[in-house]
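To assess whether the prediction recovers the assembly geometry, we first specified each molecular entity separately, as shown.
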Amino acid sequence: MPFLSHGSYRIRYELDGPANAPAYVLVNGLTQYAELWAAYREALVARQFRVATFDLLGQGVSDKPALFISQDDQVAALHLLVDALGDGPIFLAGISFGGLISLRYAIEHGERLAGLAPMSCFAELPPQLFLLGNALRTALILGGTSYLQDLLLPMNVSDQWLGPVLDKLDSVKRQGWLVNDVYALQNLMESFLDFRPLTSQLSSIILPTMILNGEFDFLTPRAVHETLRAEIPNSALVIIQRAYHAFTLEKPALTADLLARFAEDVLAGRWQGNKAVWIAPEETGGELIAFPAGYDHLRAIPVQGPAT
Amino acid sequence: MSEFLGPLDPQGRVPPYQQTRVAAFLTSAHGALARQFAFALPAKLVSAWQTELNAQVYHEAEIVSLLLRATSWVPDLALGYLSMSWETAWFPQPAEGIPDQPLARAVGLATLAHAVHAGIRPAALLPREANADDPFVMALRRIELESGRLLQAQILFLKGPELLAHRDAVSAALEHRHVEIRKLWTSALEGVGIVVHES
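The predicted structure of the complete assembly is given in tokenized form:
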């Protein structure tokens, strides 16, 4: 198991796929760990990508600083991993908390990347997300990791995913509970206490950017992704049908295919962001559908959008 | 060596020699915290935060009481020297680099409590099939949950405004305590066939 060193801390990472291939770096969400990307490793390596996964500081097998974890440290750790990948094209994809770290990385080191894919991601904390974040932190404090997982699961995945595992949720939660420590998760959550919105810096991200948002994501809803789409010049927003916050867990084949197609388009010079809004296919490999012209993609009912 | 307690008996209970070793360590650690918090607790509270100190004393004592009653104790010859090394490690260690000695002692106690509450996860040793109705199993789960709550007092204090100027000293003292306590916990468990993964 290889490690990178950031100061006195060790960051556990894994590289798969051909060494000279274009690389995808995948960044975990808050309660995740690198093994959850296993299906992506397999799918992306099969499409001739090199895949880098790692545990953020405070997660999984990486070191867990006892008291302070800053988002700057996470960006620095990610920078170490990107450096380890050499000079070839590198695509960066992150989910939720990992999406935010990816955004920060793209703002600071965009020149190192060929493309960016923020997923279930946000650049600022509007009141609903701010209050939900505070409530989740309180849940962690009062009820431990297990209670936090209980609250996150119904936000993260659909009834169709939850139904068959409802009587074995303890098993579903166990690995996440084992590898995540309360104090380390709390430190990660408290790295938001001095959070400053990134919105004003998003326009400096000039690289191709595919923003992925679950259709029914009510933790980070469409409006927070809209900020990214509106501010990042070469971006497109892709809505994942019938998906919630953690569609990377629920729809790995579809999401890995979208990531691979995005990178292939960029590498072939076909990518045109145009701040477009697309609807992802329901089936892996299907065609993306342009969001119907004239309708407001921020609404949940088919209301005519403002004239453009 | 395994990362979980066991093998469990047919009723899903942890072997008594493992119960004894785990409970002895936890009793020693939480007992030391109970004593040190009790020593720091004034007879008459003068500040609001001291109500938390009062709570810590009694929660630590509750953990000790729980373990004494929930554990199937058996003789463990190694406990003689192990207990001595544990008790020595709990001695007050004022944090280095903080000139205000009362504050340095308070930081020392808080780092010990943080390391015990955050770094020791007894419930994570339980295999999936452990009997949820067994008192020792329930005790470990309760101690881990309660530790997460008790930890908040240490986090609030160590991250608080009073210590902002001493952030590096606090971090260094805390990381040192974590390493020290984890090492004791790891070596205590090694003797009963358990390997704790380092992170």
